[in-house]
Every structure is written in structure tokens, then in C-alpha cells.
Write a structure and sequence with these properties.
CATH architecture of the largest domain in chain A: 2-Layer Sandwich
Number of domains of chain A: 5
Helix content of chain A: 25-40%
Largest sheet of chain B: 8 strands, antiparallel
CATH class of the largest domain in chain A: Alpha Beta
CATH topology of the largest domain in chain A: Uridine Diphospho-n-acetylenolpyruvylglucosamine Reductase, domain 3
Radius of gyration of chain B: 22 Å
Distance between the termini of chain A: 30 Å
Strand order of the largest sheet of chain A: 15-12-14-13-17-18-16
Number of strands of chain B: 19
Strand content of chain B: 15-25%
Bound molecules: flavin-adenine dinucleotide
Largest interface: A-B, 88 and 86 residues
Number of helices of chain A: 16
CATH architecture of the largest domain in chain B: 2-Layer Sandwich
CATH class of the largest domain in chain B: Alpha Beta
Distance between the termini of chain B: 42 Å
Oligomer: heterodimer
Number of domains of chain B: 3
Strand content of chain A: 15-25%
Radius of gyration of chain A: 23 Å
């Protein structure tokens, strides 16, 4: 779809609000903003506006409203579903200058932070006081709170502590008509419809979030991390089921298959047995007396499931090493094939062995190599499809296999996305999950906030004449 | 373990006239804030619910979805109320996937029945509102009913994974799903939580569940007054222990529960035996002789009393639910106690100390009008603290002068439009909600 270039009058008006330092319009600079972590769809915005205060956000949005121009909000651009692709929107509004931590209320365990604040900086600001902000996406050193709110992001510790929506008490945002509103707030119980709960996970289609009130948690008294080495993924899955059936809720439960383990070993030499079929990382935390018992129980469950070795990290350094092996897994995949792409399906926890079996059948049928590293505890899989993009036929098979995997997740009673969002990537799969009525209700809710669909148009919902055609899986980024 | 049916049963159009209804005496049971419906409809399937909604809509009338009717007194007087749509006929567990720790349950099932079933698998939905035997799953969601355990386990919004409901047009709508992690589409279920029957008739919900803790212990810390009980609770919550609940009681609430003291902090611990024992000792050493362990045979009774505290004692009592920042609670409650004393109003208070939430029973004094003045004082004081107070039970003579919600922010206009999306003709519970929605 052809975009009208924006007029110089509009540019002047925007510059009048944010100053020239808040405008990026030169094509060589706007190219930086042509995609997020979903790199196969690219399009540069005509202009990127970077307001430094909430008042400037209001000013920018009002200028755009008066000119009837569409816009797309952007945080750090680490999204994995093309959420901030400026599809039918010539203007991008970035939050990189909204970086204030406005308030730290240690006694009530709350912070108020602006949308551009980086996730990890929240925990850093309160760590010394024994507090933390729980949602910990692997991208946490770069991604912003505004982006987390939009995507309802998760992380390895989601299993016990929940995702972003469980930790956001209030949202301050600018509606597409320029109104600055507050939803929810600092206190626990607010009467009225929970519109904050709708905006969290709204993928940036309701307006621009300018700040959020976040709940902080007390850091656990004791943490223990175990590594179980198994002969097969099936055996590791048995251990996962036994741990959960045994009434234990670990803080994290992550699984890596042989392909990943080998790649990690080759790249970093952590000392995994060369022929390990699967590795399980289990983290337990809480009151010291309780954690001790759980460590013993997890050891037993792993042994009973046939673990050939269970190692408990003896100190913080060893614990960090174990996590590094998990977090570097994706980096190591680069050694296996020139290209790879990741999926983000979810199945009921008990169906993890079934989906893994299906994935291996799909791999065989399409003559592909697929590696698995995933959040086993909550059934959120991240199969990595390996390929060489110069091989056109292989590219086609990768695309087909990706779709087949997501369809298999839905057939098993799951979902097509656990944490990365629909964006532009999975629009076609929405009808697998929702009826036309369900989809209409969602779109009508969007219109309550944005009646003219000027905020982040073209996302989430299947549209007649949709314009992103994905022909090349080129995503290089991990979960 | 039972499995989820992969396909929704094909819908058979139902005539509303084939749905069982009753009129007359029985309708009194379903009165909402003094308004008595003319009919009670008793559908037994989702398609029958759809037929009733369409019929009511077609006739230009309105309905309120009801479970056991325990919370029909909350909210404003409905603008119009013709049909009580009982969910009694749509109950039971649809499927419990024990290994997945998820359960799908029909709207008319009581929380107690659900938890009884889950308990046989060693699992629970750790929500503990008042009268769980009279709280249906639909009602639990619609009124956002939570209890003391919210401290550790959160609220309805933290456990609900998906919902199915019938909107004001009689359409079946689904939001969310059956898996514990899912960001496909908007989180529409959140909007249904606490919507008081104004957006949809909740027919089915899917929740996460969790294992039942093997060991529990309740400790009672006697305090000089309510304010200090809340303060001790905040102290313990700051990394000293991880409690399931921390309930602070004033003298009246202590008396009602049978504790002989002017104020008390009730501490609920749960977990592995070693963990509970270790934490009990921590509390005992912090409390220096003022802490006693409650004998285990009294645990269930006291927990029930704590949960049920938000129910009005009689028709003349006013129940206020306050939500402020936790650190603001001690002084607010001290001031409330002093104000009540001045006005000759008896007030019983039980606070979820570390959540900043307090439930207060204001009992009418001999001098009329004092309760109203106290309620107004409370609303102003709470607003100054940027918090909210909802009057969940209001004596009849104050009904017209006291807004139960007192919500006035600019997003009410968005809420009105949200209502339009779900129920454009005002068929569902019109007038009960915030801003007269
Ligand atoms: C290496 C890597 C690891 C990752 N790991 C995880 C993980 O473990 N778990 C997980 O859930 N995700 C993960 N992600 C995905 C991504 O980091 C998250 O979705 C993150 O929340 C995006 O934040 P962002 O600031 O980069 O947002 P962006 O990518 O800039 O934007 C994402 C969406 O949010 C909208 N948006 C951004 N800011 C605002 C705002 N202020 N107001 C309204 N809308 C806004 C945008 O329009 C867009 O639709 C990972 C990504 C990478 C690259």
C-alpha cells in the first residue's frame, strides 16, 4: 500500500512540539526504524518523533489528530511479531526519551516509571532494597516497560510469578484524540471496568502508554538452581510432569534438547555430556526451609525419570553459569545453520510430549532440522527451524512447517502465541482461535479508544486486502 | 483426567418459550437493591441462555444474571429488572486437566463445589471470598470476589485464563483460552471481571489451579489496637515472612470472632511443614509473647469468619470496602475509629493489612443520620489518599443519597462505550454499575 509522504507543514508542527532534536526524518536515519526483532517485514517510517515529556506526547498526538495522520508507538524495537512496523502509519512515535523513574515507593512496593524506561533498570533501581520487578523477558536489558505493557511480556520466571499483566497496577496513556488518561492506579482495588487489563497486551493499538505503576516483589529468601541431564527429551518431560504432579511450583522450568545442548557445548564448553539427549534447568525459590525440601524432591523426581546426572549449583557463580547456558542457547544456534527462525506456540503442559512428537514428524516430513529450547513448565514452546535462505525450496518448507506447528498447538488445545504477540506475523492464525463474533468484539473495543483506527493500524486482526506477505523466514532473534 | 472437547457442540437454536420460568413468590429471592423481577428464567444450556437474552432484548426488557443471589445487594438500584436469569441449570465441571493444573467450569457451579472436586486431586483455586458455598463462578468473576489469601495468591484476574459469555445481543463470545500463557488477541476476560453482570452472562470459565499446601498454621498476635495490628502486618510483610494472609482486626471484629483482645493480627501460613514451622518461629520471636498458635481444630472456623466478614450483619448496617496504599491504612483506620466514636457509630473492621484493603461494618446508632455523615467523611478521606471506597451494603434509608461506587474519573466515558460494545440496548443489569452503567 502506498503511503502519502507527510507534508512539511506537519513536520514543522511536530518540530514545534518536540524541537528539532526530537525529529528523525532523514531517510538514512529512519532506516534504523524499518523493523523490530521480526526482520522479515520492513518499512521505514516517514518520520520518527521522539517526545521527551508527557506534555510533548499529548502535543504530538494532537497535531496528528488535527492532521488525521496515523502513527505507531515504538519502544526499543525488540518485539518479535512486527508490532511496531509502520504499516499504514507514516509517523512513528518513539518513547526513548521518556526515561524517568518518577516515583519509588519502597514501603508500598510500587514504582511509577515512564514508558521508555528499560525493564532491567526497574529492578536495578530497587535491588539494593531487596526488591525486584518480576517479569524478566530475555531481552530485559533492552526492552522498555511500554513495550512490555503492550505485549504483556513474560520470561523464564513467569511460571511462578506471572506475566506483565499480573504486575501492572496502573497505566497512564494518551488516547489517539490527545486525551491524557489514567487507568487503574496505585491502589489494589479500583471500581469500574478493568480497562488497564485491556490495554496490557493491546499491542500498542489503544494509544501511547506514557507511564505505568508497577508492583514490586520481595526478593526470595533462598534460590536453588538444578540441572538435570537426561538421555531423551521424553525422559526430561517425564521429570517435568512428576515435579508438577508432586505439588511443586518451581520459579522456572526450562528444557533444551540435544541439538541445542550440543550447540551450546560446542560454542561455550559448559561441560555437558556430549551425548546428553536433553537438559532440564529447574529453579526453586522461597523460604529457605521450604526450598531445601523441594530440592530433594526434584532430585528424586529427576532420578526416577531416568536422569543420568542431577547437579545443584553450589553458589551464585555456578547458578549464573547454568542460566548463561540457557540464555546463550540461541546465540549458539548460529553454529548449526546459516539461518533460523523461532516459533512461539503454547500447548497445555501435559501435552508437551505430544507437541514435541508432532514437531519431529513435521521436521521429517518437511526434511528440516528443528531444535527445541523452551519454557517446559508452562507449555510455551520455542521450536527453532534451521535453514539456509539461499535454498528457496528449503525456505518454503520452513514457512510451511512453521504454520503446521502452530496449527498443531491449536489442535492440542493451545495457542499460537505465548509471549511474542500477533503483530503482523500471526494475523492469519487468529481465526483458528477466535470466531468472527469474538474478533468483532475485540475490534469494537479497539474503536472505543481509537474510533478512526489511527493508532498502529493493520495489526492483530485479519483485514480484507491485508498487505504483509511473508515469504522469507529471516528471524535471527531468539525468544 | 478428562479431556477438553475439541469442538464446541453445534448450536441448536432454542425458543425462549421452552425455557423453564417461574413468576410470583419465588422471585422475591432474586430482588436486587429492593427491585423484584417479575420472572425467573432457568435455562439449562448456553443456547437456552442465548434464547432468554434475545427474548428479553426483543421485548425491550432487562435481566440480571444470578447465581445464588448472595451479592445482588451490591451496586446501585437497577434501572429496570424484569427477569432473573438463574445459572443454576448451567453448572458442573466441564473438564479438569489435573496434569496441566487447569480447570474449565460452568458459570453456575459454586466455588465450594469446584474446590471440593479439585481437592480430590490435591489441587485448589486459591480464591477465598465470603460464602464460597453461595458464590458461583459467574458471580465470583462478575463481582471480583476476593478474600484474605489475595495477599499471596492474588485476585480473580491472576487465575482466570479464559471465559465464555453471552453478550447483550444474545451472541456467544469467547475470550482467552485454556493454556496458562497466551497473548493471542486482547485480554477481554479482564473487562468482565468486576463488571457486575453488565457486559455478559458468564457461562464458562477456565482457571489455573495450584497444589494444596501440605501444612498450614494460623497465628494470632494480640495488639493494643487495630492501627498497631496493621503496622505489625506491614512489618512482617516486608521480607520477614511469606504469609498466605495477614488480617488485622479491631476490637469489635475480635469480639465477633471470639478473640479476647482490643486488636489482633491474624497470620496465615501455608507450605511444607518445615517452612511453616520455621516461619511460625520467626513470628513468635518477633511478637515476644503476644503471639499464640491457633489449635488446628479452630482453623477452619476462624478462616471462615475472616472470609465472611464483608457480609452485612443486618439490614441496617453499612459495609464499606476501602482500598488505599498499605502504609496509609493504619492512620486512616485510626481516624475512622475516632470519628465513629464521636458519632456514636459502632464500627467493626477487618483489614487485608498488607494489601491496603479494609472491610468495615458501620452499625446504626440511636441517633439517625450519623452513619450517613460517617460514610461521607470516609469517602472524602479516602479520596484525599487517592484511594477508593465502595459501599457494598447500604441501609435502605440511605440508598438514594449514597452512591455505592463514588467513581468519577474521566474514563467513565470510555466505560460507557465499552458497555455499548457488549450490550448496546441495555439488556444486562442496567443501572447497577459505576456511573449508572
Ligand atoms: C533477544 C530477545 C529476547 C526476547 N525475550 C523475550 C522473552 O523472554 N519474553 C517475552 O515475552 N518477549 C521476549 N522478547 C520480545 C520483546 O522483547 C518483548 O515483546 C518486549 O516487550 C518488547 O519491548 P520493546 O520496548 O522492544 O517494544 P517494541 O518492540 O518497540 O514494541 C512492541 C509493541 O509495543 C508497542 N509499544 C511500544 N511502546 C509502546 C507504548 N509506550 N505505548 C503503546 N504501545 C507501545 C509497539 O507499537 C509494538 O506494537 C525478546 C526479544 C528479543 C529480541
Amino acid at each position: 500500500m502506498q503511503q502519502p509522504r507527510i507534508s512539511s507543514t506537519l513536520l514543522d508542527r511536530l518540530a514545534a512540539v518536540v524541537g528539532t532534536e526530537g525529529i528523525v526524518a532523514d531517510p538514512s536515519s529512519t532506516r534504523v526504524y524499518e523493523c523490530d526483532g521480526f526482520t522479515l517485514a520492513r518499512k521505514s517510517p516517514d518520520v520518527v518523533v521522539l517526545p521527551a515529556t508527557v506534555e510533548e506526547v499529548v502535543g504530538v498526538v494532537k497535531v496528528l489528530r488535527d492532521a488525521d495522520v496515523a502513527f505507531v508507538p515504538r519502544g526499543a524495537g525488540t518485539g518479535l511479531s512486527g508490532g511496531c512496523l509502520p504499516l499504514e502509519a507514516p509517523v512513528m512515535v518513539g518513547t526513548s526519551r521518556l526515561r524517568q523513574i518518577r516515583e519509588i515507593d519502597l514501603a508500598n512496593r510500587r514504582v511509577v516509571v515512564e514508558a521508555g524506561v528499560v525493564n532491567l533498570h526497574v529492578t536495578r533501581a530497587v535491588m539494593g532494597e531487596g526488591l525486584l520487578y518480576a517479569p524478566d523477558p530475555s531481552s530485559q536489558s533492552a526492552c522498555t516497560i511500554g513495550g512490555n505493557v503492550a505485549e504483556n511480556s513474560g520470561g523464564p520466571h513467569t511460571l511462578k510469578y506471572g506475566v506483565t499483566t499480573n504486575h501492572v497496577l496502573g497505566v497512564e496513556m494518551v488516547l489517539p484524540n490527545g486525551d491524557l488518561i489514567e487507568l487503574g492506579g496505585g491502589v489494589e482495588d479500583v471500581p469500574g471496568y478493568d480497562l488497564r487489563g485491556l490495554v496490557v497486551g493491546g499491542e500498542g493499538t489503544f494509544g501511547i502508554v506514557t507511564a505505568a505503576t508497577l508492583r514490586l516483589l520481595q526478593a526470595p529468601q533462598s534460590i536453588s538452581t538444578l540441572l538435570g541431564v537426561f538421555d531423551s527429551v521424553a525422559a526430561a518431560c517425564h521429570a517435568v510432569s512428576a515435579i508438577i504432579a508432586g505439588g511443586i511450583v518451581p520459579a522456572a522450568l526450562e528444557l533444551m534438547d540435544q541439538t541445542i545442548v550440543d550447540a551450546v557445548e560446542a560454542a561455550y564448553g559448559f561441560g555437558f555430556p556430549a551425548d546428553a539427549g536433553a537438559v532440564l534447568i529447574v529453579e526453586l525459590d522461597g523460604v529457605a526451609a521450604g526450598v531445601e525440601g523441594e530440592v530433594a524432591a526434584v532430585r528424586e523426581h529427576c532420578a526416577a525419570a531416568g536422569a543420568r546426572e542431577v547437579r545443584v549449583a553450589v553458589d551464585e557463580a555456578e547458578r549464573a553459569t547454568l542460566w548463561k547456558s540457557r540464555k546463550k542457547a540461541f546465540g549458539a544456534v548460529g553454529r548449526l545453520a546459516p539461518n533460523y527462525c523461532t516459533q512461539d506456540g503454547v500447548v497445555p503442559r501435559g501435552k508437551v510430549p505430544d507437541i514435541l512428537e508432532k514437531i519431529s514428524a513435521i521436521a521429517q516430513r518437511n526434511q528440516l532440522r528443528i531444535a527445541n529450547v523452551f519454557h517446559a513448565g508452562d507449555g510455551n514452546i520455542h521450536p527453532i527451524l534451521l535453514f539456509d535462505q539461499r535454498d528457496e525450496d528449503e525456505v518454503k518448507r520452513v514457512l510451511r512447517a512453521g504454520t503446521e506447528i502452530l496449527e498443531a498447538c491449536v489442535e492440542l488445545g493451545g495457542s499460537v502465541t505465548g509471549e511474542h504477540g500477533i503483530g503482523v506475523e500471526k494475523i492469519d492464525q487468529m481465526p483458528l482461535l477466535f470466531s468472527p463474533i469474538d474478533l468483532r468484539v475485540m475490534q469494537d473495543l479497539r474503536k472505543v479508544f481509537d474510533p478512526n483506527l489511527r493508532c498502529n493500524p493493520g495489526k492483530i486482526f485479519p483485514q480484507p486486502g491485508a498487505c504483509v506477505e511473508v515469504t522469507k523466514p529471516m528471524r535471527q532473534v531468539p525468544l | 483426567m478428562t479431556e477438553v472437547p475439541t469442538k464446541v457442540p453445534t448450536e441448536v437454536p432454542t425458543e425462549a418459550s421452552s425455557v423453564a420460568t417461574e413468576a410470583g413468590e419465588a422471585t422475591w429471592r432474586y430482588a436486587a437493591v429492593g427491585v423484584v423481577p417479575t420472572t425467573v428464567a432457568r435455562p439449562t444450556s448456553v443456547s437456552e441462555i442465548q434464547a432468554v437474552v434475545r427474548d428479553v432484548r426483543g421485548g425491550g426488557k432487562s435481566l440480571i444474571p444470578v447465581g445464588k443471589g448472595a451479592r445482588l445487594g451490591i451496586g446501585r438500584r437497577p434501572r429496570r429488572y424484569d427477569v432473573a436469569l438463574s445459572l443454576d441449570g448451567v453448572s458442573g465441571i466441564e473438564s479438569h486437566r489435573a496434569a496441566d493444573l487447569t480447570v474449565t467450569v460452568r458459570g453456575g457451579t459454586t466455588l465450594r463445589a469446584l474446590n471440593r472436586e479439585l481437592a480430590s486431586f490435591g489441587q485448589t483455586l486459591p480464591l477465598d471470598p465470603a460464602v464460597d458455598e453461595q458464590t458461583t463462578i459467574g458471580g465470583l468473576i462478575a463481582v471480583d470476589a476476593n478474600g484474605p489469601r489475595r495477599l499471596r495468591h492474588g485476585k480473580v484476574r491472576d487465575w482466570l485464563l479464559g471465559v465464555r459469555f453471552v453478550n447483550g445481543l444474545g451472541e456467544q463470545v469467547r475470550a482467552g483460552g485454556n493454556v496458562v500463557k497466551n497473548v493471542a488477541g486482547y485480554d477481554v476476560g479482564k473487562v468482565l471481571i468486576g463488571s457486575f453482570g453488565t457486559l455478559g452472562v458468564l457461562t464458562e470459565a477456565t482457571f489455573k489451579v495450584r497444589p494444596i499446601a501440605p501444612s498450614t498454621q494460623m497465628l494470632v498476635w494480640e495488639c493494643s489496637d487495630l492501627g498497631s495490628a496493621v503496622e505489625q502486618g506491614l512489618m512482617l510483610d516486608r521480607g520477614v515472612i511469606v504469609a498466605d494472609y495477614l488480617e488485622a482486626l479491631n476490637d469489635g471484629a475480635c469480639e465477633a470472632i471470639g478473640f479476647e483482645c482490643e486488636g489482633a493480627l491474624v497470620i496465615g501460613l501455608a507450605g511444607a511443614a518445615a517452612e511453616v514451622a520455621a516461619q511460625s518461629e520467626v513470628v513468635e520471636s518477633a511478637g515476644k509473647g503476644a503471639v499464640r498458635r491457633l489449635p488446628s481444630d479452630q482453623l477452619a472456623g476462624v478462616e471462615q469468619a475472616l472470609r465472611n466478614f464483608s457480609l452485612p450483619i443486618d439490614e441496617d448496617s453499612l459495609v464499606a470496602r476501602i482500598s488505599v496504599l498499605p502504609t496509609a491504612l493504619p492512620d486512616l483506620l485510626r481516624a475512622l475509629t475516632a470519628q465513629a466514636l464521636d458519632r456514636g457509630v459502632v464500627v467493626d473492621i477487618c483489614a487485608h493489612a498488607a494489601s491496603g484493603v479494609a472491610r468495615c461494618q458501620l452499625i446504626a446508632p440511636a441517633v439517625p443520620g450519623q452513619v450517613a455523615l460517617l460514610a461521607e467523611w470516609l469517602r472524602v478521606s479516602v479520596q484525599l489518599l487517592r484511594g477508593w471506597v465502595v459501599f457494598e451494603a447500604i441501609p435502605e434509608e440511605l440508598r438514594d443519597s449514597l452512591d455505592p461506587w463514588g467513581y468519577h474519573r474521566s474514563d467513565v466515558s470510555l466505560m460507557r462505550q465499552v458497555k455499548e460494545v457488549f450490550d448496546p440496548d441495555g439488556v444486562l443489569s442496567p443501572g447497577r454499575f459505576v456511573g449508572g452503567i
